Fold this sequence. Notes:
The protein is mainly α. The chain has eight helices and no strands. It starts with a helix and ends with a helix.
Amino acid sequence: MYGTNREFFYRRLHSLLGVIPVGLFLTQHLVVNHFATRGADAFNKAAAFMEQLPFRYFLEIFVIFLPLLFHAIYGLYIAFTAQNNVSRYGYFRNWMFMLQRLTGIITLIFVVWHVWETRVQAAFGAEVNYDMMANIVANPFMLAFYIVGIVSAVFHFANGLWSFFVSWGITVTPRSQQISTYVTMGIFVALSIVGIRAILAFV
């Protein structure tokens, strides 16, 4: 009984952290990156504003990295212990269930690489600016990798938002869950456009 309650708590915490703060940070990050569509100066000013936020290191560690770390580790546990029923049933939600796990793994790989190329390099003295990103995506393979990573991250967030509404009792009826599907897929499309436009602006 204790183990069941503990797992229920961990799953709800995992779902909550995926939306708040991780999902909100993803949205904010995509919006800041979208300033690149207005040119190098606009992006550099937006990035510099984020760099100069008060208590930035505290926010990065306790509001972003630690919640993200828990969400990633427990998400891997869920991904490798979940039973996928796609081949047996083929229902829409089962496909979304499988894609949620798959995009979670892709997103984790992408985020680790992106942090290495930006935040870790910044710790060694590199400047995170328009030129840094332009140099990264000048390689066609890296551009494709970033596009796949962005779309995977956005899908994982949007579909995870649907699961969050269900697990927290916000959408209980089939009708409300159907409406939630349309809303969250709309969020997926909108944020994907923002993210892809932003990364292509560096090319």
